[in-house]
Amino acid sequence: MCDFRLHKTALFLLCILLSACDRSAQQDGSAGPTRLIPKPCWFETDNSWPVTQCFMMEVPEDYAKPSQRKIQFPVVRFIANEPDAGKYPLLHLGAGGPGASLGLEPENASDWLWINYAAMTVDDGRDLIIMDPRGTGMAQPRLTCSEFIEDAQTAFRRKLSSDEEARVFTFSMERCYSRLDKAADLAQYNSAIIARDVEALRQQMGVEKFNLYGVSYASRYALTMARDYPDSVRALVLNSAVFPNIVYTQQLAKDSLAAYQRGLQACIEDKLCNSRYPDLGRRLENLVQTLDENPRTIPITHRFSDEEYPFVLTGQRLLRVLFQALYNENFYSDLPKVIEALETSDSADLKPVQAAVSHFMEIVLDPYFGDAAGVSHFCYEEAPFVDFDKARASAADSGILGGAVRSDIELMQVQCRIWAIPSAPLSESKAIATPLPVMLLHGGLDPVLAADDVDKARQKLPNHQWLLFPALAHDIISASNCAEEAAARFLDNPKEDQTDAVKACRREEIANKIPADGDAPPPGQYSHQD
């Protein structure tokens, strides 16, 4: 729920859905007519890579109708440099979102696909298997709302009110649904169905058990797999975890305001930063109001054409840009610069603004993002359990910085009315108390998955390790070698407590990180694990 084209308009904020099959049908043990089809790898490798095998996994779109439409999703296996027969593979369940691509596409694939996880896998005798879930990235079909991309390219060049923007993107969603509903059963894209795909993949690969790695929303796939197919799983590593029993949409306003406040507080608590950029909270609120009345045009380079793109920055768009930027703790030192740069008419200091807007637009314009699959997830397994009246009341009390959330909540309900898919059973909103060993890695600065919520949710897991990194935000393993090394040791011996080792490692890691001149380091000087 979180790497998605989040706050793209928030049309795709959290996302969930499922098929009409009930749980008993899903757990009958039959994988149905499935095939693992070997393919020449569609991306380039070199001699520094592990031995690499590429496949397309073919499964029924609807397991209740195995003879009808088939779909495929990509699978890549990196063979351990020195394979250890006693070590089960690690399956990376995708980039999260839901709907985000892992980057397997020919123009995007690089050695980071395995280097980020080498200590846990190929360098430690364990194969690494990676995949895009059904509907996303290299999957066929890929459920991307090209209508949204086309409309966004036009809309973000113009000054539109929140209501006008909502009408534009509602029309996008209507056209997207009308097109994709003819080519796919949109009720078949959700966590429970993806878990069934993973079980079919395990059987086709002839693997006794998987170790599962889930980042952001893909962690929900891992938990669902542990619930529905516990005998097929050895251990779980959950990075920035999503839990089915946390109703994220209902507390979206509170969590968004907390994220902005953490970003501001990082400067307020630093004497040098606070003296250089005083009264940031008031200035941000004034800036949002000013930009809604008189937007600034921010020239950026279009991701796919290399032409200049004149992004019209309103106050509400600024809030979405900032929220997305706060997924990375390194943005904290840029936040005061962004606010100050936008307060003046001088265009000389717009580089941090341009960088944040460009990042936002890369997500908006990503042709491999499975928007429709993400909406299906949301409308199936999230929306049915949201008290939207409470969510609206919370957003109404959120002041100037809650304006974007107020629009988003309305759009979420609209998109589910358009999708008109069945709701998940109540069981999809319950805590998953798997006895399997679990490692939880979480950032204290995570803007969309509040650490306090995860701290409460983890209490339902009877056999887990909890590693909190106060100075990091979203996706801990990509930000800290200490986190990856801890996960590697956990996979070798899930019973060994990693708390002290990570604490010592983080002290050294932080001490060796030299911030740019004049930048304040992110808050939280030392890692802390409970």
TrEMBL record:
Location of region: Disordered: 508-530
Residues of the AB hydrolase-1 domain: 112-476
One GO cellular component from the entry? membrane
* Keyword Calcium listed: no
InterPro entries tied to this protein: AB_hydrolase_1, AB_hydrolase_fold, AB_hydrolase_sf
List, alphabetically, the SUPFAM superfamilies matched.
Answer: alpha/beta-Hydrolases (SSF53474)
Q: Cite the entry's keywords alphabetically.
A: Signal
In the record, which residues are listed under signal peptide? Answer: 1-25
Instruction: Give yes or no: UniProt keyword Signal.
Output: yes
What name does this protein carry? Pimeloyl-ACP methyl ester carboxylesterase
Which organism encodes this protein?
Answer: Microbulbifer donghaiensis
